[in-house]
Amino acid sequence: MSTFQEKLKKYAEITVKIGLNIQKGQILLINAPIVSAEYVREVAKAAYDAGAKNVHVEWVDEELSKIKYEQAPEESLMHFPSWKAKGYEEMAKDGCAYLAISASNPDLLKGVSAERVAMTRKAQAEAMGSFRSMTRSNQISWCVVSVPTPEWAAKVFPHLSEEKQVPALWESIFACTRATLDDPIKAWEEHSKQLLNKVEFLNSKKYKKLHYRGPGTDLFIELPEKHIWVGGGGTNAKGVPFIPNMPTEEVFTTPLMEGVNGTVSSTKPLILAGNVVDEFSLTFEKGRIIDFQAKEGYDALKQLIETDEGSHFLGEIALVPHHSPISNTNVLFYNTLFDENASNHLAIGNAYPICIEGGTNMNAEELKQNGSNSSLVHVDFMIGSAEMDIDAETADGVIEPLFRNGNWAN
């Protein structure tokens, strides 16, 4: 049986070789919580072994962020340093690869003003708009991964003793990312091909509308005429393939901005800026959220929706079978990267230009004309379950079953 260090090394290697696909002479930019230091060191070793020119790490301490939310003057919450945003942009223009590590305490900001948190996040999103555009349009290779924190592990495995919680979460992460296998690189290549088969099927169909049905959900979503389904990885501006999320089980596209009608209910909690938002529903009319409810985290959800005009609309629809490796663990991760890959999901806010034919070469107005939404935010939330059915309507009005009982109908 592989030791922890062996699996950690494999995890770092697949991050570098499959997730980011680092090329010789490339810069690697990492946004990393301080708790991820051991993993970051392994990533740096793997990156240099792959020929990286430099590994630059931006360290983050969420406890310091909480202190700022609680005690800093309001004017500082509305400011994000331009020098930092420009640094990210310069590295992206130089063709860097970008690794974002998601590792947090799901309940960190419970009781902290949702308005102050939203203010800070909006300022950062505005300042980092150019860099975010480069990643969303796949101009550079980018990847999101996770490592455990003690607080997150305790949330996921409350029944285990404290000393066993973090190791248990590590094992779950290793399993979901295929780091436990003898040849995880080959396994990822095969998995990517399977997702691409679904992408080819959906793109050949060119459905014009989807109808979601499930407990608390009756939702119609129209698709733009030029929509493209994506999954199994992307290709950057230099033609280098990469996989943006590890793990990933989804295929996704963009909805028609003003073509969403009905009500959808969440099936898993959403961790939103250190707050848990749970048992919530959204009601849409002509694409816009006109009503919403939440049993927990209402204020955080309200601040998200009110970020800007685009945050009142959807920017992504993603299909994930209920019987998938992550879902079959029966673990509620309280982390969107994992939970979204165990469930059909939608995203509030910005749409990916790669989901529109020729979208990466369009300006904001052209994307809007093609039905694509624009926003400072992009937040996924889970809606899938074993009780969800999805029907798809073809261009000539034929209704076909797409999902039945949470899984692909074909």
Automatic annotation (TrEMBL):
Its cofactor is Mg(2+); Zn(2+); Co(2+). SUPFAM superfamilies: Thermophilic metalloprotease-like. One of its GO terms (molecular function) is aminopeptidase activity. Keywords: Aminopeptidase, Hydrolase, Metal-binding, Metalloprotease, Protease. The keyword Protease applies. InterPro entries: M29_Exopeptidase, M29_N-terminal, Peptidase_M29. Belongs to the peptidase M29 family. This is Aminopeptidase.
